[in-house]
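Entry for the shared binder. Reason: the reviewer on the internal report wants the predicted structure included alongside the sequence.
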Amino acid sequence: MADTIKVMVVDDDTEDLQMISALLEAGTTVPLEIDPASSYEDALSRLRGAQFDVAVVDHRLGIHTGFDLIKASRAQGFVGSFVLVTGFGSSSIDDQALEAGAAGYIPKQELEPEPLARMVRYAASTSKGATRTPDEKPTWIPRKGDLALHLALAKGSTVREAAAAAGISERTVHRRMDEPGFLEEVERLRADLRDRALDIAARDISDGR
């Protein structure tokens, strides 16, 4: 049985907080333990003392931002991963999120159960079972395009197609494919996609479609 992924969802809008939590529950194929936090202060206080694998954080948190929460929680020793959610799409926000150390970024208008849950699983894979101390760097830090690259390769795309999907060069794709753990993540996603397709086919058969 898969390990439970402990997720904190942070949003100061009650309806959005409930929506994101519900989407995660609807899209997951692995056990999740979801813990909501309705403010920057609440999240920061609990990230200090609790163990979470992933924090899904809204970009706007009152007078603070998701970037502020990432920076402050890192400073107090949190070693889990972050997924940033924002109310609008922006390549500059995307870049800032990854530079701040987030594993991924999703505009709210693009939130759907399966992609959100997949990104959380991806983010958890970078922190699950971490034994490093707060001042140590993780052995593998997600970079811009990694999730899109993993998914494209898992779906059987060529290196050229995967590079275009991730917005990086083919040379960079080849270099990342040689990195420890990279192809294992591709295979994990491929198995996940295959299981999801089988589940859908089974439901269609049971519904008589």
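Summary line for the report: Confidence is low (pLDDT under 50) at residues 128-141.
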